[in-house]
Amino acid sequence: MAKLPTKPLKVTAHLSDYGFCSDDGIIMFDSILYSAWFKANPAMDDQIRKIGLPLKQIQDQGFRWAASKGIYNILKTAPTYKKITDLMGSTLWVTTNKTIEFYCVGAKDKIERLLNEELFIGKANTLNQGVVKSWLVEKAEDDYSLIHPKFGLMRPLPVLEAIDYKDKLDLSRYQKRMYDIRPPYWKTENQRMCYVPVP
Length: 199
Known about the structure:
The chain is of the alpha+beta class. The protein has one domain. The chain is 12% helix and 28% strand. The chain is built from 3 helices and 12 strands. The strands form 5 sheets. The chain has a 3-stranded antiparallel β-sheet with strand order 6-1-7, covered by helices on one side. Strands 10-12-11 form a 3-stranded antiparallel β-sheet. It has a two-stranded antiparallel sheet with strand order 2-5. The longest helix has 12 residues, at 29-40. It is globular, with a radius of gyration of 16 Å. The two termini are 29 Å apart. Mean pLDDT is 82; it is low at 77-88.
């Protein structure tokens, strides 16, 4: 849990190129910080590391971080879903303006320091996909880590929590499936039945 006071923030990734790789088009900001934390806190395999992301924790159906998925304008042309050659068979997602925006509630200074460690987002980084040229962390008007007035659902929401938001969201717009609620997003014990905001 973040020890410094947390505030609503908007984080913008400025990419060197238009594309990044992802299985489903979702890039989670807590996953980016999770990767950066391990780079900033190296340890031997036999050492136990307690992960402390500079984000607010939400306690409900298993804790999750107050951090959104990335918001970007998808290029509506042929390259949008082009397969690239990588071992994971990921999809190349193409943006229209080389920027991806995230929202979170966190400690600004600590987030900025961690982002200095993260030069890529998404998969297939060895193929120079998802190269980040720069990060911008600034104050947000409100906490949009879960719901945004324009973009709707901003992260996977466990079905058992969704009843609390039925008056704020039309959940019928979203896929319902098993999805991780916190990083690492491949770990089955982090999965819950969720409403998922796929692009």
